[in-house]
Amino acid sequence: MLARKSIIPEEFALPALASRAPRKPVFRERVNKARFIAKSGACNLAHKNIREQGRFLQDVFTTLVDLKWRFTLVIFTMTFLCSWLLFAMVWWLVAFGHGDLALTRPAGFEQCVTNVKSFTSAFLFSIEVQVTIGFGGRMITEQCLTAITVLILQNIAGLIINAVMLGCIFMKTAQSHRRAETLIFSRHACIALRYSRLCFMIRVGDLRKSMIINAAVRLQVVRKTTTPEGEVIPIHQIDIQTESAVASNSIFLLAPLIICHVIDKDSPLYDLSAMELQCSDLEVIVILEGVVETTGITTQARTSYVTEEIQWGHRFVPIVTEEEGVYSVDYSKFGNTVRVATPRCSARELDEKPSILIQTMQKSELSHQNSLRKRNSMRRNNSMRKSNSIQRNNLSLAVPKVQFFTLEEGQNVAVT
């Protein structure tokens, strides 16, 4: 038996209509992942299964500088103690071989080292030689060539140990990342219109009066990408240019500056709208490098911004004002932003459809006019309230006060 044909044509059936209907892009919820650079600038990276550990010993000085302070102090103390004990043993052997430790000595016998009678006195003499204290109770004589040779060797060894240990302590106290503690970045990044172009903006500042010479800012976008050949790159770094890059990224960091990146065709943010940015998995890394003016050491400060820390449609409030001929910076507003009219589309759509920009500019003008009207109305209300209060005070002062008091005869008399 043949199946009956449907009354509705097949091209107008529900499955056919659903297949031809335009589908909106589906945005999946972004899975929280570990950031590559922390807000403090530390790299969130763990090194595992390093087989050639001996490479760290080939550069002992850098290894000592990279150690934590507790390990550095332990190594510092043990190095001096071990060297003192080693040469104390050598001095005790010299004294024992020359016969200085014997209880009975022949007449006219001279010691190699005077007043060295035990290992304790040899240890004290070793300390006196290496740190050049010289109390005067113990000293070498010209009777023993071995003692003179040991004295020269201990002095050379002591100088080498002092140079290495003191240099290590100095480098740890004057490390470049210490200067980076006073280089600050805004907590959030902003995307807004500037000169009719979508721009990615951050704010950087220096809390010290001593400047950073040849300061340069670099921006990188880090995200997971897949090549056409199927290769997965977990950390794909893409450099993006800043607005101040004429010949280089050098900036004059005298006051807090807003670093701007124009989202153009070469930008990795060119195809991202406001909704797609929140669902994307990318991280913007900011690197500030420069030379410390006081020490001449190159320093580097880092931070990063994930999608949750990028505010679309915001810009930074001004914090530099001129007060009595001096420029003043209010760091309490360093990270403050204000909402501005910004299209929610991507930079590509904004270039392809200029009407979106015109509508946005009209909305911004209307909002600006409304804000001015509100401010003017508030000022008028405040002025009216002040004038009313002044009139009330004047009326209260003009009206004479009347007091009544009672005489002895019981009559009421009014006194003004």
TrEMBL record:
Entry keywords, A to Z: Ion channel, Ion transport, Membrane, Phosphoprotein, Potassium, Potassium transport, Transmembrane, Transmembrane helix, Transport, Voltage-gated channel
Potassium channel inwardly rectifying transmembrane domain ranges (all copies): 37-175
Coiled coil: none
One Pfam family in the UniProt entry: IRK
Family: Belongs to the inward rectifier-type potassium channel (TC 1.A.2.1) family.
Membrane topology: Multi-pass membrane protein
Chief site of localization: membrane
Recorded GO MF terms: ATP-activated inward rectifier potassium channel activity
Record InterPro entries: Ig_E-set, IRK_C, K_chnl_inward-rec_Kir, K_chnl_inward-rec_Kir6.1, K_chnl_inward-rec_Kir_cyto, Kir_TM
Name the record gives this protein: ATP-sensitive inward rectifier potassium channel 8
Annotated TM spans: 71-94, 145-170
Gene Ontology CC terms: monoatomic ion channel complex; plasma membrane
Organism the protein comes from: Bagarius yarrelli
Compartment(s) of residence: Membrane
Record GO biological process: nervous system development; potassium ion import across plasma membrane; regulation of monoatomic ion transmembrane transport
